[in-house]
Amino acid sequence: MNENQNPAAIEMRDVSVGAMRDTSFTVVEDVNWTVAPGEFWVLAGQQHSGKSDFLKMTAGLMAPVKGSYKLFGNETQTFGEAELPSRLRLGFVFEGGQLFNRLTLGENVALPLQYRHNLTAAAAAQEVESLLDLMELAPLADVTPANVAADWLQRAALARALVLKPEVLLLDNPFSGLGARHLQWSLRFLDRLWRGHEWLGGKPVTMVMTTDDLSRLAGWRDEARRFALLKDKRFTALGSWSRVETSNDPVVKELLAVPLAATM
User: Where are the alpha helices (DSSP H) in the chain?
Assistant: First the structure.
């Protein structure tokens, strides 16, 4: 899926990442990583390995502690108002959704569109109608998050990230806690987005997601995706799924293991 375009979508050189809650504490060190337009990366790691902080830094929510990080060729250390168009080319899905509880699901999804294009709530709602239909969220559009199951909240968070039609999509542990039906839907939908969904005009989306459970990704056995491991503050590129399956790293083996609950 590498389109061999310059600049790279994501380019890190000697990057170190601090914790969001305490940037003086380094969670990942000396990352050298390039994501070309159209690539799909899965960053695996145990809980508390720094995955969420790494992804938030990648999203531009905080600056790297050290090193150079360029998003679409723009140095993120100097991100300001002038770089807003570049930042809006990237969508972010928080683990657990992180929706606004006082808003309905439909209002949550429409919010970025409303602010970006200065639309009224009614106009924004009309704009997102097709997206809600596509993601099977239309029946829940007028329901607040407190009254919706976690599976649907995660899907609504994905819709909110997609509403501005980003070129790069970052997803923090998007399959955590999903039931079998929603997991299979998400695997298929993200695959279609990456390869070029008709809702986005057929243009492929560059994707980076984190996971603490590689066993849930067994349906993605093709060789096109790339996997990396966050372990002991280090970023290590593993390669394709076949390299993951044959890895001798004990953490990789653990993340590939079927959870005990699934066997009971």
Answer: 51-58, 84-87, 105-117, 121-134, 150-162, 180-195, 241-245, 250-256, 260-263
